[in-house]
Amino acid sequence: MFKTIKALVLREVRYKEADRILTLLSAEEGKLTAKARGALRKSSRTGAATQQLTYAEMTLFANKGKWTVNEASVLEGFDGLRTDLEAFALGSYFAECLEALSVEDEPDAELMQLGLNSLYALSRGLCEARLIKAAFELRLMCLSGYAPDLTACACCGGEPRDPVFHPSDGRVYCRTCPHGGGTLPLGGEALAAMRYISSAPAKKLLSFSLGDEGASALAAVAESYLLRQTERRFGTLDYYKQVRLQNIE
Ligand SMILES: [Zn+2]
Which residues have a Cβ under 8 Å from the Cβ of 239 and sit 6 or more positions away? Predict the structure, then answer.
């Protein structure tokens, strides 16, 4: 049986001499694994379209529940990521997050769109990388059933004064209201940005602006929230931070 899908290559692993095993995210099928035979050969017709962080149209052949890539052509190569190691490392982290939070056989068009839009923004440098990262992390949490409760202070019920965020319970508090510790400073500007990211239309996700202090607070809170809620480490995030540090030094 043949099937044509549009898929983002989240991960590629070399297999045998010249094959690739791909982890794909598609709007039609959700997450799936497919083999691309001979994709690493120079003459391969599927080589370019089966590289990590490529969005491609693929014709897959199914046999006994296993998928093989028959044909593939690039729809969006995110070329800006391939010439910038730091951006590529961050894109790989996005891909690892998408792999962790997507489900096999469960198509999720919003998740797919978030992944593609975020990689596109990163590839074109449409916005500061730390803001693209924070918006991606927070929106991903919202789409995956971990939306934080940002409506009011979880203690006094009022509009939070000098707000702080609790990454474990996903709530905001006034800095002076009792909240049991473990919170991160948020501030009013970053709270407004979090509210925006949680509810903005997908295409306008990055249409917010923040001062330097607000951006730092948002970045710290979004990353910490994702790590706390998923309760796992992301090897690609550690790598991204290493690359960033080297670029700063
Ligand atoms: Zn309060």
Answer: 89, 92, 93
What is the pLDDT, as a whole number, of residue 64?
86
Cα–Cα distance, 187 to 210 (Å, whole number): 11
Ligand 1 centre to CA of 162 (Å) is 9
Domain boundary among 77, 101, 134: 77
Ion ligand 1: residues, Cβ under 5 Å: 153, 155-156, 174, 177
What is the distance in A from the centroid of ligand 1 to the CA of 174? 4
Contacts of 37 by beta carbon, 8 Å cutoff, 6+ apart: 19, 68, 69
Residue 15's SS3 state is: strand
117 and 200, same domain (yes or no):
yes
Ligand 1 center from residue 163 Cα (angstroms) = 8
| pLDDT given for residue 248 in this prediction | 83
Q: What is the pLDDT of residue 104?
A: 87
First-last CA distance in the chain = 53
Give the number of other Cβ atoms within 10 Å of residue 5's Cβ: 18
150 plus 165 within the same structural domain:
yes
Residue 186 Cα to ligand 1 middle (Å): 14
What Rg value do the Cα atoms of the chain yield, rounded? 20
- CATH code of 31's domain: 2.40.50.140
* Cα-to-centroid distance, 167 and ligand 1 (Å): 17
Tens digit of each residue's pLDDT (9 = 90 or more) over 43-74: 898 899 999 999 999 999 998 889 999 999 99
How distant, in Å, are the alpha carbons of 13, 40, 71, 242, 246 from that of 223?
27, 35, 37, 16, 20
